[in-house]
Amino acid sequence: MKLSKSFGKTVREAPADADMISHQLLIRANFIRSTGAGIYTFMPFGYRVIRKIWAIMSDEMDKINGQELWMPNLHPAPLWQATGRWDSVDVLFKLKTGSREYALSATHEEIVVDLALREISSYRDMPQMIYHISKKFRDERRARGGLIRLREFVMKDAYSLDVNEAALDEYYPEMVQAYFNIFERCGVTVTAVNADSGNMGGTASQEFVVIHEQGEDSFIACDNCDYAANVEAASFVREGEKPSQLNELVKVLTPNCKTIAQVAAFIGVETSQTNKAVFYWWTMPGKEENGRFVFGLTRGDLDINETKLRNALGGGELRAATEEEIIAISATPGYASPIGLNVAKDFEDDGVLVIADPSIEAGGNFVVGANDHEYHFTGANYPRDFAITTMADIAQAETGHHCPQCDGRITAHRAIEAGHCFKLGTRYSEAVEATFLDENGRPQPIFMGSYGIGLDRLLAIIVEEHHDKNGIIWPAEVAPYDIHLLHIGKDEEVLETAVSLYTDLQKAGFDVLYDDRNARPGFKFKDADLIGLPWRVTVGKRGLAEGNVEVKKRDADERQLIPVGQLIQFLIDNR
RNA sequence: CGGGGCAUGGCGCAGUUUGGCAGCGCGCUUCGCUGGGGGCGAAGAGGCCGUGGGUUCAAAUCCCGCUGCCCCGACCA
Q1: Would you state the pLDDT for residue A199?
Q2: pLDDT at A198 over 60
Q3: Measured between alpha carbons, how far is A195 from A234 in angstroms, rounded to an integer?
Q4: Bridge partners (DSSP) listed for residue A129
Q5: Residue A414 three-state SS
Q6: Which CATH code is given to the segment(s) A250-391?
Q7: How many Å from the CA of A438 to C1' of B69?
Q8: A250-391 and A479-573: identical CATH topology
Q9: What percent of chain A clears pLDDT 90, i.e. is strictly above it?
Q10: d(CA A383, CA A354)
Q11: Mean model confidence pLDDT for chain A
Q12: In chain A, is it the N or the C terminus that has fewer CB atoms within a 10 Å radius of its CB?
């Protein structure tokens, strides 16, 4: 490609509101252009990188017996209604035309399970793994970070179909390894962590995360062992002992102490010597009218993780309870505890659902609300002084907590989610009765797995990890071109040499970007650094007088003079 | 969806406080000089000041509504 003919051009300044480095550099270097919030055009350079990543993914998927196909992006509504996700997936783009309704492809489980229903009839038809690379559309409430969170994006999604859970369990690690291979070939350092499977449903999932302070995800990793998990799935040891002697329950006046920090300071104890109550209104999907009050209880120094709480409840939606709802269960906002409330004995019982974190037993003689305005109790102990409905791990893991696997401490990291693997099990196949006949002629549900990586996000992550103050530094396998060729000055011999190198390098199998513009050298060098191809070859009068051209790797400081005749062999040797 | 910010030529910005000719840098066109890290000079093109209403002799500037974009949070397959 001759730079003088390429579509679009590099710009000196990125839009001021581009916050992430990848966003700034990709715009400046003419890889992407914004078309709307969370909607981008891939310019020719950017699209070449997408195709390079695409090739890596196809290669790794094919190696584990994947078959690439191409599924549609317009999904008839009945397919999504059949799995129940037409109503439960709130980022789904829906279209209506006449009497027909469609969803834009937010993901492709519905299409796959529909295909499986038609194509898989016997255990002999499995195992299968199919995948494709195509557009996804999600009505994100807030697109952000350039290519990090988009409304329209490109995803590689793969789906495995197996006869039973054991077969899925056996295949799953191959996919995880393929994921590590993909990320490694793209030059990205990932950590695999156990994660919550969220709306996807299923039995297990792993997230591939890249540590990044501007990431929107966070995960927990042990400083000492290999324990790692998304905060929504991370556990930790509740440190603290029950006191040997239980104090008496005493009601004390605590004026203006509505927060844990205030009451702890007023009484003169650590926040870990208190209990924290958080109130939610919980609704199961499709049963909005049958909402229930949920009382979440943890030790005062810990926070409730809503996803963990939701999982403890078996799903559904949570929102903060209103003051009226709190008063309606006879609790006092700011001074609440389960003491004196009609606590449900179990989920069937009508009382108040109290979900408590085990941390309320790691300690004792707590300060808790007295359900009376401006009063707290001291010396509160479970189960002596109050009942709960159930105990569950609902507290958020934080930096400094004790690792659940070893003696180490855990640290919370901000991260970008680069990929996700789910063991879906029979969540989708049962919804549409996608079954097959086993060896005994009995119908069995298909066991599915689904595995996704966002290509645009991955491209952005590559830039986040591979750049310097001058521009992008593309890893060789994903670079849009191999060589940035440029000439300096107007000297006839220089021009002729550059033009013939342009042809010869391409004949030797290299992808070459030739800066043939009549521009000053500094200008060309700045552009070369910005675009960030692995090799820069400079033809100038000075070097050529000695029969040399200058070769520089983008990520190295030193330049080498190579005789023109040996350039191709040099580049092949150093590929 | 809650909070905050921004909207002036392709990009980056000034001008808005205190209403009175729409400006600067980069980029673009033409010409000349220059030629190893975004060079210099000269002459040009390009803007309904996001949008709808209002106040006023007069609105980029003041008032009200709307839209778009960015950031934080919530949510997230």
Answers
A1: 63
A2: yes
A3: 8
A4: A160
A5: strand
A6: 3.90.960.10
A7: 56
A8: no
A9: 79
A10: 13
A11: 93
A12: C
